[in-house]
Design brief:
The chain has helices at residues 15-19, 46-50, 70-75, 81-85, 96-110; strands spanning 2-5, 25-27, 33-35, 56-58. The chain has one domain (2-110): Alpha-Beta Plaits, CATH 3.30.70. The strands form two sheets. It has a two-stranded antiparallel sheet with strand order 1-4. Strands 2-3 form a two-stranded antiparallel sheet. The N and C termini lie far apart (41 Å). The radius of gyration is 14 Å and the shape is globular. With 116 residues, it is of the alpha+beta class.
Length: 116
């Protein structure tokens, strides 16, 4: 079950919202994904697998909520770890998707390049 969206790591690309087959996420006003319907999570790992910033943690047990600590997950190498398991991991390097979208998102947030 989806347990954590890291505000520090999230680049607000919206991929997790788009790929979730059960519409678990909403986005807040800043574009940060919010776990809105956790009970609908099927533990499919689609969100974690597609997150270019390794900002999500899905617990492996779908039928129980677990307490998570972001710092502990990072220290144990678990935050976003499903990407590495399935071969999507970047070995500590920024993924191509993050490298491609981060500058665009930063410009959008700062208002550069927006139509006035």
């Amino acid at each position: 079950m989806i347990e954590l969206v890291s505000e520090d790591r999230c680049i607000q690309c919206g991929l997790c919202v788009k790929v979730c087959p059960t519409n678990v996420f909403d986005s807040d006003v800043s574009g940060l994904p919010v776990i809105a319907r956790q009970e609908d999570c099927q533990t499919c790992f689609m969100c974690e697998a597609h997150c270019p910033a390794d900002a999500l943690y899905v617990a492996h047990h779908a039928d129980e909520k677990v307490e998570v600590n972001e710092k502990d997950l990072i220290e144990r190498g678990l935050l976003g770890s499903w990407r590495a398991v399935i071969g999507f991991g970047s070995g500590g390097k920024v993924s191509m998707a993050a490298a491609d979208t981060t500058p665009i998102l930063r410009r959008m947030r700062s208002g550069i390049g927006r139509a006035q």
